[in-house]
Input
Amino acid sequence: MKRIAILGSTGSIGVSALDVISALRDEFKVIGLSTNSNVSALTEQIKRFRPKIACVMSEDKAACLKNSIGKSRTKIVVGLDGLLEIVTHSDVDLVLVAIAGSISLLPLLEAIKAKKQIALASKEALVSGGEVVMKAAKRNNVKILPVDSEHSAIFQCLNGDHKRSLKKIYLTGSGGPLRRLSKKAFHALVPEEVINHPKWSMGKKISVDSATLMNKGLEVIEAMRLFSIDLDSIEVLIHPEAVVHSMVEFVDGSILAQMAVCDMRIPIQYALGYPERMPQKFNLRLDLKKINGFTFSRPDLKKFPCLKLAYHAARDAGTYPAVLNASNEEAVLSFLDGRIRFTKIPEVIEKVLSRHRSKDKPALKDILEADKWSREEAKALCFQ
Ligand code: MG
Output
C-alpha cells in the first residue's frame, strides 16, 4: 500500500487525486492533507479519509478546522511549517504537490530531501527553482513523477531512459478558450469568460494561464527541467481536439504520442501508481471513431505574448524564469480581482522582466529573493 500526502487537497487536482484514491482503496492510503483556506472541504475530506495530519495556512482557519472536525484524531498543523511537517512525516511514501504557485517550492524541496517519492502537479515550482529542484532530486535519488497531462504524456512515451535517443518533444495544447476570439476583443474580457476552458476543468489560476497561453510557456520550462532537454528541442503545437497530450520524437524519426480523454484522473493515477499501470475505475475511454481528425498548428505569438515572454525567460535562464512566474502569478491574481484588464497581464510581466537583474546559476536564496522582488514590482504596477 502506498501512503500518500496531498498538498492542495481541496483544489482541482487534489479532489481528483482523492477520487482516484477512493477508487483504489486497496492500493493507497491518505496520510496527510492540506488546504490554503477551504476549511469546509478539508473537514469533509478528514472525515472521509481520516489522515494522520492536516494543514491549513492560517491560525484562524486552524481554529475553525479544529472546531469543525470535533473529536477526530487528525493532527492539525499550520502554515509553511505545517506543510513541512506533512512532507517529512515518517509514514508518507509519496507526496503529491498540487498547490498552485511557487509557494510549493520549499515543501517540494523538503519532501525531496526526506527522500519521498514526488508526484508533481505544481509546475510553478519547477519553473522558478527548476535547477535547484532537479539537482536535489538527483542528489537524493528521488524520482519526480509529472502530473501535468503533457509531461505525463512525455514521461509515458519515454518510458525509461531514452535520453540519448530523444530528439524532440512536441508539447501540445488546445489553444485555450480564446483561440478563436479576435485579439481586439481581448481588451474587454472579464474573468468569467476567460476561465471557461473548452476542454479541461481546472482551478482559476491555471485557467487564466491557459487563456493567455502562459500555461504552455510554463510547461515548456517545466519540460526543459524535467527531461533535461534544451529549449530548441521543444516545439509547442496547438491541437484543439486535445486528444494527443504530447509527443516525443526519437533520433530514428519515430514519434510516439500519448492519447486519452481530457481528465486529470488519468495522469494523476499514473503518477500515484507508478511504476505500475493500474486499472482505471472511471470508464474514461477514448472513442477513436468519434474523432474527426487531428490538427496541429503553430501558436500565434503575436496574439499570445505571454508565450513569447516565457520563451525569452527560458532562454535567458538565471532568475528570469522565477521572475516570469512570480510576476505572472501576481498579474493573474490582479486580473481575477478586477484590478487590471486581461491585456495588462503580459504588459506587467514584460515590465518586471525588463527591470530585473538576473543572477546566473541561482541558489535557492537567489530564487526566493527574485520571486519576492517580482511580486512587489508586479503588485506596484497592478495597484497603480
Ligand atoms: Mg498541462
